[in-house]
Design goal:
This protein is of the alpha+beta class. Helix content is 39%, strand content 13%. This is Acyltransferase ChoActase/COT/CPT.
Length: 659
């Protein structure tokens, strides 16, 4: 089952979005330029080999199906039967009343979009425009912590130089080779056992950038000519908050060699002897303030040119002065440029791809999430790092003469300096509010498969048990989000796997001793039932048959003057859609560090990997007031306890089951 990086702010927290938001945005302007209504389709299309076949559009589920699934989901979260019965009454009222009207509107929207008779409002599918804005572009808090994600890489291969300039050069060249292959149309499309996945979001990988605007942002792409003519383009290199533009063209419209790129990077190291103004930190402020600062910066032609160079760059290379040590320091350096403040401005947080190299040779990646989920960048980073580790890596042929890297300088006034100071204070408050812990278990998927259990389901049950132990026995479980990709559909992104179910609750209560006494044999049976139900829900979500996107769409179609249906304010419904546990899994053998921030103030972000044979990797984030370290310890305890439960059944060295 292919997972996707979790949505940073799920639908339940889109509290300020009104049904008419997008209609207003069609006539809104950013502080500097109009936001094109069709901005999503202005990026240059990308071809693959073999070509991506036509994929089905995202379905509109029957209202009755979603209502039945919602009732089942809420039953597992109830405090008592009366609470659940009241929620069911409101769901029935909705299904028999205004819900029918909203369902008809949704079906008409999708039908007109499929026929191309709606002016492009639902061109990709009924959800796409709403989701881009509701989940990302209209979100107004900082993208740092709240939207962005990170990967921390394994050390440089032992047969290669480990100094930072060489490591940076290989990352840049390898990423540009991936870019070239993509624009040349020779990359194979992503696929899972069910078939080929939608590749549309790859057009937003290189040569593009998010742009701040009011009341919503958008993204711009400059890939057209580079993609059409396979030009290497340029990379922006940041060092000590200063910006260098480096052409990657060797003069023959081919990519610079590793040696050439390293020469250029060494030039930056040698010339960045003093700090520049921390302009990059402005892009880490809340989006409304950043939009105003962006507009003011853009009034200077010099700044406007620099902004264009940033936004049109293939990607960013951030050369940080930090030397992160342990896994937490390393993770936080990749996640939000560390704790010291030295490199907070050494980023442009709106770029989708930022490669980070530290002065001790460690390296990582920071991604902006708004137009592209994590699975494409996992493939990108995996490909880049695999290629570099290959002794036959294509380093290219050196060029004898190169133009020096061009430093681009900002033209700043006192108002800009004041804005930087304010943004720095806000940034410090944000990242110092965050806690992080990390754990790897003593076993991995090889052991779990001996027990005939899905490793992903196993990890999800560990999370449920660990969180339950933070509260008195019998406390109802909390809303839990696991991301499933819906890229089997054209322009699909994600759907929610609602991990909590009656089966998981019954198993957790058995493990915590709530209610009747349960023996080990029954505990294992309950666990397997919970995991089987989880697999079933994951399959439904991957087939775009979850409940959350459908409910989001129905709510979005309320018209001005129509009363909000009672179900949307129901306490149990709201609890079930508040992601106290926001979880997601990817896998790469190159990412010992990976994660993002929690999505609600009293919640946790749980990034995990189950692909290793010998360990499961967990990173837990939250606000500092939450019991972060204890939660991590409870995950570790649960991991060993459940293993012991199954070890009692499966002898050591038992045969592996094929899943």
């Amino acid at each position: 089952m292919l997972r996707a990086l979790t949505l940073r702010r799920p639908p339940a927290s889109l509290r300020s979005l009104l049904p008419g938001l997008h209609a207003r945005q069609q006539h809104s302007h950013s502080p500097t330029m109009p936001r094109p209504d069709n901005w999503k389709y202005l990026a240059h299309p990308v071809e693959f080999h073999p070509p991506q076949p036509p994929l089905p559009r995202l379905p509109v589920l029957k209202l009755s199906e979603t209502m039945a699934k919602m009732k089942r989901s809420l039953h597992a979260l109830r405090a008592d039967d009366a609470q659940w019965e009241e929620a069911c009454r409101k769901l029935d009222e909705f299904e028999g009343g205004l819900g029918k009207v909203l369902q008809q509107r949704l079906e008409e929207r999708e039908m007109m979009g499929a026929m191309g008779t709606d002016g492009g409002e639902a061109k990709g599918h009924w959800l796409e425009k709403w989701w881009d804005d509701g989940a990302y572009m209209a979100y107004r808090d900082s993208v740092v912590v709240n939207v962005s994600y990170y990967y921390g890489f394994t050390p440089s291969p032992p047969h290669l130089p480990s100094h930072p300039s060489y490591r940076a050069a290989t990352l840049v060249r390898s990423a540009l080779l991936f870019r070239h292959a993509m624009y040349a149309g020779i990359l194979a499309p992503d696929r899972v056992k069910e078939g080929i996945l939608c590749m549309d979001s790859y057009r937003w990988m290189f040569d593009c950038c998010r742009v701040p605007g009011l009341p919503a942002d958008w993204a711009v792409s400059y890939a057209g000519e580079s993609a059409a003519k396979l030009r290497p383009g340029h990379v922006m290199v940041l060092r000590r908050n200063r910006f260098w533009k480096i052409s990657m063209d060797n003069g023959e419209e081919d990519i610079l060699s590793t040696e050439d790129i390293e020469r250029q990077i060494k030039y930056v190291y040698e010339h960045a002897t003093e700090d520049g103004p921390s302009v990059g930190i402005l892009s880490g402020n809340d989006r409304d303030t950043w939009a105003a600062d962006y507009a003011r910066l853009s009034q200077s032609p010099q700044n406007a040119s620099l902004l264009h160079a940033l936004e049109s760059a293939a990607f960013l290379l951030c050369l940080d002065t930090e030397t992160p040590g342990d896994i937490i320091d390393f993770s936080r350096a990749c996640w939000h440029a560390g704790m010291s403040g030295k490199s907070w401005g050494n980023r442009w947080y709106d770029k989708p791809l930022q490669w980070i190299v530290f002065d001790n040779g460690k390296a990582g990646f920071m991604g902006e999430h708004s137009v592209m989920d994590g699975t494409p960048t996992v493939r990108l980073c995996d490909t880049v790092l695999h290629a570099i580790a290959d002794p036959h890596f294509d380093n290219g042929k050196p060029t004898f003469e190169l133009p020096e890297p061009e430093e681009l300088c900002w033209q700043l006034g006192q108002e800009d300096h004041n804005a930087i100071a304010a943004a720095t204070e806000n940034f410090s408050t944000l990242i110092n509010s965050q806690a992080m812990s990390y754990h790897t278990t003593s076993y991995g998927k090889a052991t779990i498969k001996n027990y005939k259990v899905s490793p992903d389901s196993w990890a999800q049950m560990l999370i449920q048990l660990a969180h339950a132990r933070l509260h008195p026995p019998g406390t109802p479980p909390v809303g839990t989000y696991e991301a499933a990709t819906t890229r089997r559909f054209a322009h699909g992104r994600t759907e929610t796997i609602r991990t909590v179910c009656d089966e998981s609750r019954e198993w957790v209560e058995a493990m915590t001793g709530f209610g009747r006494e349960v023996g080990d044999v029954e505990k294992r049976a309950l666990f397997r039932r919970a995991c089987a139900r989880h697999i079933e829900m994951a399959r439904e979500a991957g087939n775009a048959r979850g409940v959350d996107r459908h409910m989001f769409g129905l709510k979005h179609l309320l018209k001005e003057g129509e009363e909000m249906p009672a179900i949307f304010s129901d306490p149990l419904y709201k609890r079930g859609s508040t992601w106290v546990l926001s979880t997601s899994a990817i896998f790469s053998e190159h990412f010992p560090s990976y994660g993002w921030g929690e999505v609600v103030p009293d919640g946790f972000g749980v990034a995990y990997m189950t692909g290793y044979d010998d360990k499961i990797q967990f990173t837990i984030t939250s606000r500092k007031e939450m019991p972060n370290q204890r939660f991590c310890e409870e995950i570790a305890r649960a991991a060993e306890e459940v293993k012991a439960l199954f070890d009692a059944e499966v002898p050591a060295g038992g045969s592996k089951a094929k899943l």
